[in-house]
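Sample intake sheet
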Amino acid sequence: MYLKRKVRLHAIDIGSGAEKLGGPLTLADTKFDGTNYTYVAGVSVAGDGANSQNGRVTLDGLRNLQRAALTLVDGTLYIAFGSHGDTGPAHGWVIGVDTQSLAISAVLCTTPNAFYGTIWQTGDEITSDADGKLYVVTGNGTFDSQLNADGRPINGDYGDTVLKLAPDPTTGPGNPSINGRGLKIADYFTPSIQSQLDAHDLDLGSGGLMLLPDSAVSAAHPHLLLSVGKQGRLYLLDRDNLGGFNPNGNNVVQELDGAVNGA
């Protein structure tokens, strides 16, 4: 006996109810025998994170859950995945699907070499700006505090992090980046106390993100967003320079502790 679950995307003709574009599209197909999870089909990225098999991390149909709302940007449908509570193995995922062909155009994993970093956002959609950039925020999980020369986490793991994503046509199945293909992490912000947030279940990504209109901001910071998680600390971030990670203090426009009771 074993459990098996498929995660599928359907393109439906609203007049007849018939499947379109050759659907449904399988995003994950996983089975569990009581001890081991086995990948059957679906999306994956290179990595040795939780439940990796043969150097690949897969979208686990039994342990990942589509929590954020579906988001349509420039003809691409973006789907983000959190988890069923804090039950692993799970990772954060963003998958892009071409709405004209139902082909997968982007796959991004937030913790390819670790675990969690799932995308919850209280069901909020992936936020996008006028330039087609996407913004998501992850929950508890591994963040690599050791950084590369470019200031990025050395193993590509982004727990408790605001991510700015951009379409990346330079990557594909044969030449992926450390986090996947078709999307790249253009910028990020991780609180200096990330390890404390993770240790005390104070997910930064428990609430969604809000982009402020240009009319509400200053000339010094014309593009701002707001983030607040379980801790109740409000972060005001510059979308043109989110701030990265600094263990000695946050490089942000403003932060207010206890501004709300937590999202």
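Comment: The mean pLDDT is 94. The chain is about 0% helix and 35% strand.
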